[in-house]
Design a protein that fits this description.
Layout (H helix, E strand, L loop, with lengths): L17 E2 L19 H9 L5 H9 L6 E4 L3 E4 L2 E4 L6 E4 L20 E4 L2 H4 L9 H9 L4 E2 L7 H14 L4 E7 L2 H4 L22 E5 L4 E5 L6 H4 L5 H8 L3 H15 L5 H11 L1 E2 L8 H30 L3 E7 L2 H10 L5 H9 L4 E3 H9 L6 H6 L2 E2 L1 E2 L1 H18 L17
Parallel strand pairs: 6-7, 6-8, 8-12, 12-13
Antiparallel strand pairs: 1-11, 2-3, 4-5, 9-10, 14-15
Length: 427
C-alpha cells in the first residue's frame, strides 16, 4: 500500500479527535484533571497490583516466573527457557549468552561482528527457536554474524539504555534499532504491572522510565525504582508501594480512564477543558466528551513524544561514535489490519520523524500491506501466514527479506555475497 494514502496528520485517534504535535500549548488556567485523583483512589488501584513475599522470593530464586530474571539496571533480562508457544503449539528453545548477553548466535558466530540489534520481543524473536530468528536469517545471507540484544517487553528507552552499555562492551559499526507499537507507552511505565497484570511466566517488574513534560517539550530519565531484591519487598506492602508511586503518571492515567467509565455522568466539562488547554489536546468540546477519551489521547501524545526524543538521542549517539543506524518499525497483526481498514496510522508521526532525518527505515506494516496487494485472500488469512502473536519462522524470514536491501546498502565494505570483488570458484 502506498504510504501516501495514509493521513499525514500527526495522530488521529479512533475516538474522533486528535493530538497535534505541532500545536501550541496553552497556559495552565485550570487544575490538571490528573491532580484531582485522590489518595484513596490511588491506593485502591495499587492494592490490586501488589506482589506477595512468596512471589518475590520465588522470582529471585529462579523457581517461578521463568520468562525473565531481575536486572537492577534494566528491570529484567531473559532466562534460558523452553516454552510451548511456537507454530502448531510446538516448543520454542531460548538460549542467551552468559551472564547477561545476547540471544545465542549460530550462523558465522566465530567471525567478527559489526552488526548489533536492539529492541523488544520482535527483536528477541519470541515464539521461535534460537536458529529461526530474523537475525540468523540475515547472518546466513550476509555470511557474517548479527548479534541479538532484544528483550521481550522492553520499551524504546530500555533498548536505548542497553545500546549505550553494549556499544561500550562489544561495539559495532552498524546498529539495527527495532521499535514495536506498544514500546512508546512502555517508555512511561515505571511498573509494567500497572498496564499488564503479572502472570505465571512473567512477574511484570518495575523498570527504568521517562517522564514527559509536554508543555516544555522535555523528558527526564528515571532509574529502575526497585533495583534490589529488598526494594521488591516494598511492592508487597500498600504503604510502601503508595510512597513509590503516589505521583506516577501512568497510574493516574489508568485511574482516570477507569473513573470515566464508571462515573462519566459526574465528570466536569471544565476539568476536561482544562486538560486540553494545559496539554495542547485538540478536540471538539462543544459537547461533553468523556474524560476517558481525553486521557487516552494525552497518554498517547506523551508516549509518542517520548519515543521522538529517544530517536533524537540515538541519532546523536551514532553521530558522536561514527556509527550508522537502521530503524525497523514492527507491529502486531491487529495493528496492520486496523491500518488497512482505517487507511491511517496512529503512529504516523514516528515514521515522519525518521524519514525527515533521512535515516534508513524499514516500516514493516507498509511492507506487509504492499505485499498483500499481490494476494487474492482476506487480509486476516494473509496475516496468518506470518503471525502467531509474534512472527512465526516465516514472519522472521519476511522481516529479514525486507531488511537485507537497506542493510547491505549501508555496509562498507559490502558483505561477501554482495561484494563485486569476491572471488568465485572452489573454496
Amino acid at each position: 500500500m502506498d504510504r501516501r494514502k495514509f493521513t499525514k496528520q500527526s495522530m488521529i485517534t479512533s475516538l474522533g479527535f486528535s493530538v497535534m504535535s505541532g500545536s501550541p500549548l496553552g497556559q495552565q488556567t485550570e487544575p490538571n484533571i490528573l491532580d484531582s485523583i485522590t489518595e484513596e483512589e490511588i491506593r485502591a488501584f495499587l492494592k490490586g497490583k501488589l506482589y506477595s513475599r512468596e512471589e518475590v522470593d520465588a522470582y529471585f530464586a529462579g523457581t517461578a516466573f521463568p520468562f525473565s530474571k531481575h536486572s537492577s539496571e534494566f528491570g529484567w533480562l531473559l532466562r534460558d527457557a523452553y516454552f510451548k508457544d511456537g507454530v502448531n503449539n510446538a516448543i520454542s528453545v531460548y538460549h542467551y549468552e552468559k551472564p547477561d548477553g545476547e540471544r545465542l548466535m549460530s550462523n558465522y558466530a566465530d567471525k567478527p561482528c559489526r552488526i548489533n540489534t536492539y529492541g523488544n520481543s520482535f527483536t528477541q524473536c519470541h515464539q521461535v527457536s534460537d536458529h529461526e530468528t530474523w537475525q540468523e536469517v540475515l547472518a546466513a545471507n550476509l555470511q557474517e554474524p548479527v548479534k541479538n540484544f532484544g528483550v521481550g517487553g522492553w520499551s524504546v528507552y530500555q533498548a536505548y539504555l542497553r545500546m549505550l552499555k553494549e556499544e561500550r562492551r562489544t561495539p559495532s559499526e552498524y546498529i539495527i534499532f527495532n521499535i514495536y507499537s506498544d514500546d512508546h507507552y512502555r517508555n512511561l511505565d515505571a511498573w509494567r504491572n500497572f498496564r499488564i497484570n503479572k502472570h505465571v511466566r512473567f512477574i511484570e517488574p518495575p523498570l527504568p522510565f521517562l517522564k514527559v513534560d509536554l508543555k516544555n517539550k522535555t523528558i527526564t530519565e528515571h532509574a529502575n525504582p526497585t533495583p534490589e531484591q529488598a526494594d521488591f519487598y516494598r511492592l508487597c506492602d500498600i504503604d510502601s508501594t503508595y510512597d513509590l508511586f503516589k505521583d506516577d503518571f501512568v497510574a493516574k492515567i489508568l485511574i482516570a480512564h477507569n473513573k470515566s467509565e464508571e462515573r462519566n455522568e459526574k465528570l466536569h466539562y471544565r476539568e476536561i477543558q482544562a486538560l486540553t488547554k494545559t496539554h495542547g489536546i485538540q478536540t471538539s468540546l462543544d459537547s461533553l466528551e468523556t474524560m476517558s477519551q481525553v486521557v487516552y489521547a494525552y497518554h498517547r501524545e506523551c508516549a509518542l513524544f517520548s519515543t521522538e526524543k529517544i530517536i533524537d538521542k540515538i541519532e546523536q549517539f551514532a553521530i558522536e561514535h561514527h556509527k550508522k543506524v537502521l530503524f525497523i518499525l514492527s507491529y502486531p497483526a491487529e495493528y496492520i489490519a486496523r491500518a488497512h481498514k482505517e487507511n491511517k496510522r496512529w503512529d504516523q508521526r514516528i515514521i515522519d520523524l525518521i524519514e525527515s532525518k533521512n535515516l534508513p527505515l524499514v516500516d514493516l506494516a507498509t511492507k506487509h500491506l504492499e505485499e498483500y496487494q499481490q494476494f487474492n485472500v482476506e487480509l486476516g488469512e494473509y496475516l496468518e501466514r506470518y503471525f502467531i502473536g509474534h512472527y512465526n519462522p516465516l514472519g522472521n524470514m519476511f522481516c529479514a527479506r525486507e531488511v537485507i536491501g537497506p542493510l547491505v546498502d549501508m555496509l562498507q565494505p559490502r558483505p561477501v555475497p554482495y561484494n563485486a570483488d569476491t572471488k568465485l570458484g572452489s573454496l
